[in-house]
Specification:
Layout: E1 13-17, E2 21-23, E3 31-32, E4 36-40, E5 43-48, E6 60-63, E7 68-71, E8 73-78, E9 85-86, E10 91-92, H1 94-99, E11 103-108, H2 121-138, E12 144-146, H3 158-166, H4 183-195, E13 201-202, H5 217-223, E14 227-228, H6 240-249, E15 253-257, H7 262-274, E16 281-284, H8 297-307, H9 313-319, H10 322-328, E17 343-347, H11 357-362, E18 368-374, E19 377-380, E20 394-397
Parallel strand pairs: 1-6, 2-7, 8-11, 11-12, 13-14, 14-15, 15-16
Antiparallel strand pairs: 1-4, 2-3, 4-5, 6-20, 7-17, 9-10, 17-18, 18-19
């Protein structure tokens, strides 16, 4: 079972040099000019040309070998339970496997697979605080798991949200997975959550597992959560006219997930692009789930949306990084000075017909991951899950 990764114990300075391409994660400027990134004590301090940046005192130097550096990928929709184990598939080390798929941050949409999950108000609040504390302490492989997302029940009152917020809870699990399934009640509780700084997500579409139910456009629009969870269904999507109605009827986040309807994901992407609202589109996997664990789920979403959605690859990567970071108010997900130094270093897969990584992804291929870095610390090198990369970075000095 993957345990919490070691953290830096003293001053550190990481230099990544000889970068072939820097993907920023920002829609407004997805590609940055530079071949070197400098990180001090886990934060980005410089991005530019090797000759122009200060590398004095580097404690770790990575030669990127002309490969691509992007922000670590963010999975906006997971269902963790306890440590790096999921009872849904009785699988261990699933979070560590996601790290090998380039995911450095995860957002819980509710710890709903906890065996014996309490439904009473005292129990669900206690479980939320426990999950928030446990996952922020554990950090499997170094991955940042934002957990502690209670599934709301009808008996809750405003004071419950105030209490949870005071104890560090910042997320709600998917509205609709518990007893609250109607628009008016959901809107009232989402308003309480927002008042105390707790971000909300709603289940969208047909039932995902026995016990869940249909959440249609009317409930989604009335609830007014911060994120429209898996708008492409998890797995069963709403009809196209309802999806369009949601896209046009609110200005909240539009989450596309791997464990959803691919055609509906592409329809949502086209609709958001027509509206000039690509900044609202974020990506998740909705795993672990009945269809399993998908370590490469976010990469597969990026490739699918780029190739079949005719979206430039550098833009598709923004949906899995900077868009989510901004919507979720995270300090990672963008390569800019002052942000957390969470990176995935990639290259086109060996034998891909694409001339480079961007063309390769737009042709539908997955890139090969050569290294992941979280908080300026090298966490993995050659991925055990992706196709082998054409070129891989090396740690040349430490």
């Amino acid at each position: 079972m993957a345990h919490d990764a070691p953290q830096a114990t003293g001053p550190s300075k990481l230099v990544i040099r000889n970068i072939g391409l820097i993907l920023s994660g920002a829609l407004e400027k997805p590609i940055l000019d530079g071949d070197t990134i400098v990180v001090e004590n886990g934060k980005i301090t410089a991005i530019g040309r090797f000759k122009d940046v200060d590398i004095e005192g580097a404690t770790t130097i990575v030669d990127a070998q002309g490969t691509t550096v992007a922000p670590g990928l963010i999975d906006s929709h997971v269902h963790p339970v306890a440590g790096d184990w999921t009872p849904r598939q009785n699988q261990i080390n699933w979070i560590d496997s996601y790290l090998h798929g380039g995911v450095t941050t995860m957002i819980s949409a509710g710890e709903v697979h906890m065996p014996g999950r309490p439904r009473d108000v005292v129990g669900l609040k206690a479980m939320a605080v426990f999950a928030q504390r446990a996952f922020w302490t554990l950090r499997p492989g170094g991955v940042k798991v934002h957990a502690g997302a209670p599934v709301i029940e009808c008996e809750m009152v405003e004071e419950d949200f105030k209490e949870m917020a005071a104890n560090g809870v910042k997320l709600l699990g998917e509205v609709g997975l518990g007893g609250v399934k109607d628009g008016p009640t959901a809107r009232k509780m989402v308003g309480w959550a927002r008042k105390y700084g707790i971000q909300s997500t709603i289940h969208t579409g047909g039932p995902s597992i026995p016990g869940s139910g249909l959440i249609d456009k009317d409930v989604v629009l009335e609830a007014d959560t911060d994120v429209v969870g898996h708008i492409n269904g998890g797995h069963t999507a709403l009809p196209d006219d309802q999806i369009r109605c949601i896209c046009e009827g609110c200005k909240r986040g539009l989450e596309l997930v791997h464990n959803g309807n691919e055609r509906s994901a592409l329809f949502t992407l086209r609709t958001a692009r027509e509206m000039g609202d690509l900044h609202r589109v974020i990506l998740g996997t909705d795993a672990p789930a009945g269809s399993g664990v998908q370590p490469l789920g976010i990469l597969r979403m990026v490739s699918m949306l780029s190739s079949l959605g005719e979206l430039p690859a550098e833009i598709a990567f923004c949906l899995a990084t900077g868009n989510t970071a901004r919507m979720r108010q995270l300090d990672c997900g963008l390569i800019e000075v002052g942000r957390s130094a969470d990176f995935v270093i990639m290259d086109k897969a060996q034998h891909s017909p694409g001339k480079n990584i961007l063309e390769s992804v737009q042709l539908g291929d997955l890139p090969g991951i050569g290294m992941t870095i979280i908080d300026g610390i090298v966490r993995t090198q050659r991925s055990r899950n992706t196709p082998p990369a054409g070129k891989v970075p090396e740690v040349v000095a430490k």
